[in-house]
Amino acid sequence: MTLSLGLFSCKDKSKSLDNAEQIPQISLNSKNGSHNWYYFTRTDYKAIDKIQNVPYTPLTPWTEAVRISSANCATTAGENKAFAVVNRLGIISFNGEEKQLSKDENIFTDRTAGNLIFLNETPIFSVFKSAFFNDTIKDYKYSSADAQHLFLIQFDPQSNISYPIINCNNLVKLPNSEVIDYYWDGINWTCCVKTISDVKTDFTYINWKPVPSLLTLSPVNANSNISVTESSQDEFRAKKEQLEYKFAPERIKKLLAGFSKKASFAIDVKTSGGSSWRNYKNTVDDSKELYATAIIAQTWSAALFEDGTLFLEGALPGKHILRGGKPVAIRLPKLPMDYVYSDFVISGTTLYAAWEETSFFKTGRSGFVEINLNKSLYSKL
């Protein structure tokens, strides 16, 4: 692996950033303990020496595949804790080099999970059933009057247990409905509700707010403790709209100042311990658009591109400021063809980057790589 300030665009992989000072090459191999590979099974994650040796997994729609669907650091105050939602499996808690998977078959087994946000350092995520790919909605129990169509879930880091907060039933009285997406700005929740019947599919848009603290609610008491009003498709789309890159946070634009002039990309920008993210589109030319995800934390910010290039600036917990505040660019281990890096967190000085095998809307093998930034970065600067 090469660690450098040069990032290579998809059009010209020999072109580095303008005026970029080269950092000596660093070999990341299993012998020096700089990185470790993990892959997901249907029931757990397992260590592997390299991705090429991960057992074959049939390609399935991303809504049904075991994969990291959302991840973020827990708080802007103490950045050791981080979490990842593993679709169809559970929640992984990260604390430095420690990691733990907390499974819950009742919540994850037949639902699509994602959209991780935080309220008072408590991880919150959503679940739904896909009308296109989830066969369980054909079961008569799904349409019964007492069926619980789960929506918002909180994960308790102390007990490692997931608890339902609000069901779709608490928000609308329409049968066979699922909250398929939402946006939370830190105060207001806006949801898109999909209702299916034998003859048509309808979409309903609502705003809602909890009256007491959200974390005190459950599907049993939520009806009398939330305020629900009508929204619209236009309002929901405005909150989920992809914005021009010029409107991105200044710290992200500074972090990617050189690269943003060289390549087209779309980037999801999150705040550690924060609310829903926004997506920004940077258009340079007609070259292939890269996907990236970014985190803005209190003392650092980082962005990971699907090709494995990570930009990082600032100071990780207990460490000095990198290069006097200037960004560094790290090339993560190269993935095989048709594989991408999708999301990441940094816990202490450990980077966890999700990877997956992709084909259009389907996902095959998936997992994450664990990289010791203390050994691979700080010890070299």
Layout of helices and strands, plus pairs?
Layout: E1 3-4, E2 35-40, E3 45-48, E4 60-61, E5 68-73, E6 81-86, E7 90-95, E8 98-103, H1 105-108, E9 112-119, E10 122-128, E11 150-156, E12 161-167, H2 168-171, E13 177-184, E14 189-196, E15 201-210, E16 226-230, H3 233-240, E17 243-244, H4 250-255, E18 265-271, E19 278-282, E20 290-296, E21 300-305, E22 309-314, E23 328-331, E24 339-347, E25 350-359, E26 362-372, H5 373-376
Parallel strand pairs: 17-19, 18-20
Antiparallel strand pairs: 1-23, 2-3, 2-26, 4-26, 5-6, 6-7, 7-8, 9-10, 10-11, 11-12, 13-14, 14-15, 15-16, 18-19, 20-21, 21-22, 22-23, 24-25, 25-26
Quick tags:
381 residues; mainly beta; six-stranded antiparallel sheet; 5 helices; 7% helix
Describe this structure in words.
- By secondary structure, the protein is mostly beta strands.
- Helix content is 7%, strand content 43%.
- β2 and β3 (45-48) form a beta hairpin.
- The model is unreliable at 1-30 (pLDDT under 50).
